[in-house]
Design a protein that fits this description.
The protein is of the alpha/beta class. About 35% of the residues lie in helices and about 25% in strands. The chain binds 5-amino-5-deoxy-1-O-phosphono-D-mannitol.
Length: about 625
């Protein structure tokens, strides 16, 4: 989704901004732009549709060099207005205020009408332009760019992360956020802003994470922050543990493939210091966890996309292992419903980024709605310094490491591992899990990295199978129990990166409608673990097969699916349990979608229309 980089330094700022934009490319965007305040104290702008390299060409072709030491830059993912140069940020008002913006100003039509009446000219279709005009208007009777921006933001409704510069107040960048993330990078080379610390890791590891409503006045050697009430505040400088090198493909053709192969290590990292040889450490969920978990009577999971699919598996486990009634809903629906909130509910948000607007807003909404009730919140998240971790009482970090491919892979399997750990401790708190059961689950979790390595060896076979999808437009995924959730994740991966229409169904539901979709051009991918529903699944496979569909069955070796005409059986490792099976069966589905996309020639790491972190509604 949109990305912001800005900075003020002793040297030409342009290379820093361009490098930062490149680091944000993974988030998804369709145009990019930069403004610097040049030596002649004039705003100098370049914008281009498409990739940052196009912007670099534009900069080279410019008559006036972009030689300023202060500037802001942006990658835009279109919301209001098509992807085009005129809609790309930064926007400039009357040669004197330039802004970059992430988020959506919901009352922009209202503001636009007033500003037009006041004589302001709009040169784009974006909501962002009202920000520049509003600041410009207030600048006329303000003493500083800071003061003008403070006044302007009071008129905005919606979500924003904003960077502003002006020749009227050179030497200052104003940065403010509400609902969209923004960090300040501190270094002896200058001070910088970004919507994601990844953009600045080549320059600094020291960051200030702005809180909701904060506004910062940034100069070459100072950062002054005011909270939403205008009080000057101190915010801690935190040193990031991320390394800039972690954001590289390390010899793989795509980030997605690298991240698929990183899963054994990612899972080891998730488990580290969270388990002993035969038990799960409750303290891994925070010092308040024991009290909260013991008093939990209901669980409500809220998440989006892949994280939602992980939550679906979690629901099965929490009910099966901990015997606690668990509901799950996509955040974009939950936030606008009037759900019945019961006392002693634990709300669990799951998110790779920790910045997904729907999930974050659903959490904020439920906290408001449940005032006076005894509820608690836990987030399972991959980003330590994120809005979700700040909004939640308990945090469990997945430790997957940075995930750059838009299609989530290692974040998903580490979310599953986290949910497995939670199910065990929750079960223990409710006296539903015996020592032997716990030891068995821990043993399974410990074996996962090895099992995944073994499964990854099937890549060549899956590459061959992917050829089946070369000319296909539809595919169906089926599974039962937790495998339905895994089928959903498989279908999501395939549609995201290969653009093949893919749907997932509980196998038993086929006969109630979806079976009408089956024909020889619609491959069916089935997941067959060796569990108590195996015989039921075998009957479902017969139903599909007798309708002439091509089928691929990923089976537990012990499931011994009878081969049928048009069916390819891919045995995975055997002896999988209720926790290990969903995690292991995810791997071939990830590889399948990757290789189908490769054959289709799509942009695997940045598929069309998608963003890594969806920070708008
Ligand atoms: O960062 P989050 O986990 O909150 O993101 C939620 C979804 O946007 C995300 O999982 C999306 O569905 C992925 N692109 C799936 O691969």
């Amino acid at each position: 989704m949109c990305g912001i980089v800005g900075g003020i330094s002793k040297k030409n700022i342009t290379p820093v901004l361009i490098n930062g934009l490149k680091k944000l490319e993974y988030r998804g965007y369709d145009s990019a732009g930069i403004v610097t305040l040049c030596k002649n104290n004039k705003l100098n702008r370049a914008r281009a549709v498409g990739k940052v390299v196009n912007l670099e060409k534009r900069i080279k072709d410019k008559k006036t060099p972009m030689d300023g030491t202060i500037g802001i830059a942006h990658t835009r993912w279109a919301t209001h207005g098509e992807p085009s140069s005129r809609n790309a940020h930064p926007h400039i008002c009357n040669h004197s205020v330039s802004v970059v913006h992430n988020g959506i100003i919901e009352n922009f039509l209202e503001l636009k009408a007033t500003q037009e009446a006041d004589g302001y000219i709009f040169t784009s279709d974006t909501d962002t332009e009202v920000i520049g005009h509003a600041i410009h208007q207030y600048l006329q009777d303000s003493e500083s760019l800071l003061e003008a921006t403070q006044k302007a933001i009071l008129t905005f409704k919606g979500a924003y992360g904003i960077g502003v510069i002006s020749p009227k107040d050179p030497g200052h960048i104003i940065a403010t956020r509400s609902g969209s993330p923004l960090v300040i990078g501190i270094s002896n080379k200058g001070n910088f802003i970004a919507s994601d610390q990844m953009a600045l890791l080549d320059i600094t590891k020291d960051f200030i994470y702005l809180l909701e409503g904060d506004i910062a006045d940034i100069t070459l050697d100072s950062v002054t922050i005011y909270d939403k009430d205008g009080n000057q505040v101190e915010r801690e400088i935190k040193t990031s543990k991320l390394k800039s090198g972690q954001v590289s493909k390390r010899g793989y053709d795509h980030y997605m493939l690298k991240e698929i192969f990183e899963q054994p290590q990612a899972i080891r990292d998730t488990l580290e210091s969270r388990i002993t040889k035969d038990s799960v450490l409750l303290s891994a969920f925070g010092y308040k966890a024991e009290d909260i978990f013991k008093n939990t009577k209901h669980i409500q999971i809220i998440a989006c996309g892949t994280s939602y699919n992980a939550g679906l598996v979690g629901k099965y486990w929490l009910e099966d292992i901990a015997k606690i009634s668990t509901h799950i809903e996509v955040a974009s629906e939950y936030r606008y419903r009037n759900p019945i909130i019961l006392d002693n509910t634990l709300f669990i948000t799951i998110s790779q980024s920790g910045e997904t607007a729907d999930t974050l807003e659903a959490l904020k909404a439920l906290k408001k709605r449940s005032k006076g009730k005894n509820i608690h919140t836990l987030t399972i998240c991959n980003s330590a310094e994120s809005s979700l971790t700040r909004e939640s009482e308990l945090t469990f970090l997945t430790h997957a490491g940075p995930e750059i491919g838009v299609a989530s892979t290692k974040a998903f399997t580490t979310q599953l591992v986290s949910l497995a750990l939670l199910s065990v401790v929750m079960g223990r708190c409710h006296k539903q899990v015996s020592k032997q059961q716990e030891a068995k689950i821990v043993d399974g979790l410990n074996r996962l990295p090895g099992l995944i390595k073994q499964t990854l060896k099937q890549e060549d076979q899956i590459k061959e199978l992917a050829k089946t999808f070369k000319d296909k437009f539809n595919a169906l995924f089926i599974g039962r129990g937790t495998m339905h959730a895994i089928a959903m994740e498989g279908a999501l991966k395939l549609k995201e990166i290969s653009y093949i229409h893919a749907e997932a169904f509980p196998a038993g539901e086929l006969k109630h409608g979806p079976i009408a979709l089956i024909d020889k051009d619609t491959p069916v991918i089935a997941i067959a673990p060796n569990d108590r529903l195996l015989d039921k699944l075998k009957s479902n496979l017969q139903e599909v097969n007798s309708r002439g569909s091509q089928m691929i069955v990923f089976e537990d070796e012990a499931a011994k699916i009878t081969p049928m005409k048009g069916m390819t059986i891919v045995p995975t490792t055997t002896d999988l349990g209720r926790i290990t099976a969903p995690i292991i069966f995810t791997i071939p589905l990830q590889l399948l979608s990757y290789h189908v996309a490769l054959i289709k020639g799509t942009n695997i790491d940045q598929p069309r229309n998608l963003a890594k972190s969806v920070t708008v509604e």
